Amino acid sequence: MKNFFSLWLIGPSAVGKTTVSKIIYNKIKKKIPNLMLLDGDKLRNLYENNLGYDKKSRSKFTSRYIRLATWLMDHDISTIAAVNSPFEKDRVLCRKGIKNYYEIYLNCSMEERIKRDKKNLYAPALKGEKKDVVDVDIPFDKPEKCDFSINTENKEPELIAMEIIKNIEVLKLKT
After folding, report:
1. What pLDDT score does 126 carry?
2. Which of 7, 13, 18, 120 has a Cα-to-Cα distance from 104 of 20 to 30 A?
3. Buried b / exposed e across 83-103, counting CB within 10 Å, b at 16+?
């Protein structure tokens, strides 16, 4: 049996999950043709965006992502997921439900995330004008058992991607 995997880049908005996941995907896609990139924002559209952003809805989305990743693996497709995944209890379900699950925690300061915030989430949330924003009024549980953690504050996305590839065994074998 082939070694399929699901690599999840997690962290609050604007830490670089989407950017870094795209770089990793592009670097390993030639060696792993059965690879799919799953972006949290795009997946919401796939599922008709029928859930909100509150804690309960975010957990339901994680369950959907788990089912999607396992279904794809059943069809010999590995995945790279760029998702907030703010709750440790949900990440425990990922570890239990997804074979060859790898969790990469990306983080940086709130100040840096505010500078990068293309979605304009943080400024209104910090003023109390917006609700259900991870790491403002919804806590982000720091991972207890991630495979790799990296601070993205002062690093170029390309270097972050290469560091992840270098440190995650399944990726080393594929590149």
Report:
1. 96
2. 120
3. bbbbbeebbeebeeebeebbb
Put simply, whether the predicted model's pTM sits higher than 0.90 gets the answer yes
Sorted by where each begins, the domain ranges of the chain are: 6-174
Q: What is the largest CA-CA distance in the chain?
A: 52
Mean pLDDT of the 4-23 span: 96
Angle at 105 between CA 101 and CA 109, to 5 degrees: 170
Could you tell me how many residues make up the chain? 175
Extended beta strands in 1-147, E state: 6-10, 35-39, 78-83, 101-107
Beta carbons within 8 Å of 55's beta carbon, 6+ residues apart: 87, 132, 138
The residue among 25, 36, 17 whose CA lies nearest residue 157 is: 17
Rounded-to-5 percentages of helix, strand, coil across the chain: 45, 15, 40
Residues with catalytic function: 85
